[in-house]
Design goal:
There is one protein chain. The chain is mostly helical. Among the domains are: about 5-55, Helicase, Ruva Protein, domain 3 (Orthogonal Bundle); about 260-290, no CATH class. About 40% of the residues lie in helices and about 0% in strands. The chain is built from eleven helices and no strands. The longest helix has 19 residues, at about 220-235. The radius of gyration is 59 Å and the shape is flat. The protein starts with a helix and ends in a 6-residue tail after the last helix. InterPro entries: ASCC2, ASCC2_CUE, CUE, UBA-like_sf.
Length: about 300
């Protein structure tokens, strides 16, 4: 697509040679031959135009461009037709237009300007006077002043009802139902704990129950009590044998191994399935069943 200036230049070149042709016809020829002025001139002189161009009137004038509507004609703004609308008003009051701080004004003049107070005075005059009592003239009624004789009546809706009069206060509730300790906080229902912390609590209780006049307790008595507590704790927990060492250590090479060592090694080999090679246990059993490993 060519610009408007380039199109005018192409038309002027063709019209210098063929001034009798219309600009509309030449524009159509340029569009047909991809805006090449040489092809248009050559085909016109040799008479080799396309059938569509041959049927077209060669004196066709240039089409008139459609007038684009002005932006101001379709403009829609909240400030349309106001006193500062320069697009629809010939003159604007420039005394009301200024840039920055208005000249001739200072803080004292601004504070002394009572124009705003005068404008608001009429609005607050309606709330200025409060009439508490109106003297009716003979022949006048309260309806003329929108007065209601029962508008200020005392509300005695709950006057006869004794709301909360029969409720018991805190002292009455305590006298009827004394305070009791909840079962979960009583010492008799406290479950026996199996931690070693019980030993320390029992020891503190026994020490508190000892005669306060006794300055130093008998160490033998303390050891006997501690041994009794440990025995009672082991009895509650049950007997637990000491764990066997996990490492399998056999006799020196050439002296043979006992049966327990062989069983431990077999168990260790089978338990290796928990580690990296998870198929070790199954393969060991398979080899043993085939007779490859002596059992």
């Amino acid at each position: 697509m060519v610009s408007e200036a380039e199109l005018e230049s192409l038309l002027s070149v063709i019209r210098e040679l063929l001034p009798e042709l219309g600009e509309g016809f030449l524009l159509r020829c340029l569009q047909q031959y991809d805006y090449s002025s040489e092809l248009v001139i050559n085909n016109l002189l040799e008479g080799r135009l396309t059938p569509a161009l041959e049927q077209m009137d060669r004196a066709t004038p240039r089409p008139v461009k459609e007038k684009v509507p002005d932006v101001l004609d379709v403009r829609s703004n909240v400030f349309d037709d106001d006193e500062f609308d320069v697009f629809r008003r010939e003159q604007v009051d420039m005394s009301r237009v200024w840039k920055g701080r208005r000249k001739g004004e200072n803080a004292r003049e601004t504070l002394n300007d009572k124009q705003h107070i005068a404008q608001q005075k009429a609005r607050y005059q309606a709330y200025e006077t409060v009439v508490e009592e109106i003297v009716l003239q003979p022949g006048e009624t309260g309806e003329a002043y929108a007065l209601d004789a029962y508008d200020d009546e005392y509300d005695d809706t709950y006057e006869m009802s004794q709301v909360g009069a029969n409720d018991l206060d805190g002292d009455s509730l305590l006298s009827r139902r004394p305070f009791t300790v909840p079962q979960i906080l009583r010492k008799g229902n406290k479950p026996e704990l199996e931690e070693e912390g019980e030993d320390e609590e029992e020891e503190e209780t026994l020490q508190n129950n000892v005669n306060r006049d006794q300055f130093v307790q008998d160490p033998a008595l303390l050891r006997e009590r501690a041994e009794a507590r440990r025995a009672a704790m082991h009895q509650r927990k049950g007997f637990r044998p000491e764990p066997r060492p996990s490492g399998v250590v056999g006799q020196p090479k050439g002296q043979g191994q006992n049966k327990e060592t062989l069983l431990d090694r077999r168990k260790k080999e089978a338990q290796k399935g928990r580690g990296a090679n998870h198929n070790r246990r199954n393969m060991a059993d398979r080899k043993r069943n085939k007779g490859m490993i002596p059992s």
